[in-house]
Specification:
Protein name: MHD domain-containing protein
Largest sheet: 5 strands, antiparallel
Subcellular location: Membrane, Coated pit
CATH topology of the largest domain: Beta-Lactamase
Distance between the termini: 89 Å
Radius of gyration: 34 Å
Strand content: 25-35%
Number of domains: 2
Keywords: Coated pit, Membrane, Protein transport, Transport
CATH architecture of the largest domain: 2-Layer Sandwich
GO biological process, one term: vesicle-mediated transport
Membrane topology: Peripheral membrane protein
Length: 235
C-alpha cells in the first residue's frame, strides 16, 4: 500500500510527515514540492510519478495532503483513504487549515497511527476513533467567527451603516392582526386562530435606544358626554 503521507501548506512547507515504510525517504517531500506545488505549469492530474515514486494528492483550500507509494497500488483506494483522513480531521478540529494543523499536530500523528498501519488502512470511523483517541482538537476561530465575536463585544451592528442622519426623528409602528375562522355548514367552529405582526418604519438618526410598551387600557380624553355639550372623560 502507501509508504508515507505528507501535508504541505501553500508555500510547499511540510507540516506533517509520516513514513510507514523504509522504501521512501523524507527527500520525497522535496520532489513533490518542486515538481507539483512549485511547478511552472499547473499540475492538473492528482497522480504524479517522479523517479519511480507515485504521489497521490488532494487539495483543500491552501493545504495539500499527499500519499506516497513506490509500488503499483490501487489509486481509487488511496484517494478514498485520503478523503476519509481529511474527513476525520474535520470531525476533530473543524476546518483543515494551516493554523489548525499546527495546533493539532500531536493529534494528527495519533490519528495517523490509528488509521494506517504499515501503509495499510485500518480504521477511518470517527466514532470508533474517538473512543481510542479522546483528546479534543483545538479549533482556530475563522474570520467570520472572529468578526461575530468582535461585534458582540463592541456592540457593532452589521445591518445598519454608520452616519445615518434625518432632519426629523420619526418612528412609525403598526400592529397588524388577522382573525381566521373556519366553520361547518351547521355552524360548528372547526378552527380559529389569530395571527399578528408588528411593522416598524424608522427615521431615527444614529443608534438611539428605544423602549416600547404595550397597554391594553384605552383612554379616551376630551370625549363629550351623553347629556349635552359639557365636556367629560369616559374610560
Amino acid at each position: 500500500m502507501i509508504s508515507g503521507i505528507f501535508i504541505y501548506n501553500h508555500k510547499g512547507e511540510v507540516l506533517i510527515s509520516r513514513i510507514f515504510r523504509d522504501d521512501v525517504s523524507r527527500n520525497a517531500a522535496d520532489a513533490f514540492r518542486v515538481h507539483v506545488i512549485h511547478a511552472r505549469q499547473q499540475v492538473r492530474s492528482p497522480v504524479t510519478s517522479i523517479a519511480r515514486t507515485n504521489f497521490f494528492h488532494v487539495k483543500r483550500a491552501n493545504i495539500w495532503v499527499c500519499a506516497v507509494a513506490r509500488r503499483n497500488v490501487n489509486a481509487a483506494l488511496v484517494f478514498q483513504l485520503l478523503h476519509a483522513f481529511v474527513g476525520v480531521m474535520k470531525q476533530y478540529f473543524g476546518r483543515v487549515t494551516e493554523d489548525n494543523i499546527k495546533n493539532n499536530f500531536v493529534l494528527i500523528y495519533e490519528l495517523l497511527d490509528e488509521i494506517i498501519d504499515f501503509g495499510y488502512p485500518q480504521n477511518t470511523d470517527t466514532g470508533i476513533l474517538k473512543t481510542l483517541i479522546t483528546q479534543a482538537g483545538i479549533r482556530t476561530a475563522t474570520k467570520e467567527e472572529t468578526t461575530q465575536i468582535t461585534n458582540q463585544v463592541t456592540g457593532q451592528i452589521g445591518w445598519r451603516r454608520e452616519g445615518i442622519k434625518y432632519r426629523k426623528n420619526e418612528l412609525f409602528l403598526d400592529i397588524l392582526e388577522s382573525v381566521n375562522l373556519l366553520m361547518s355548514p351547521q355552524g360548528q367552529v372547526l378552527s380559529a386562530h389569530v395571527a399578528g405582526k408588528v411593522v416598524m418604519k424608522s427615521f431615527l438618526s444614529g443608534m438611539p435606544e428605544c423602549k416600547f410598551g404595550f397597554n391594553d387600557k384605552i383612554s379616551l380624553e376630551g370625549r363629550p358626554g351623553r347629556g349635552g355639550a359639557g365636556g367629560g372623560d369616559e374610560r
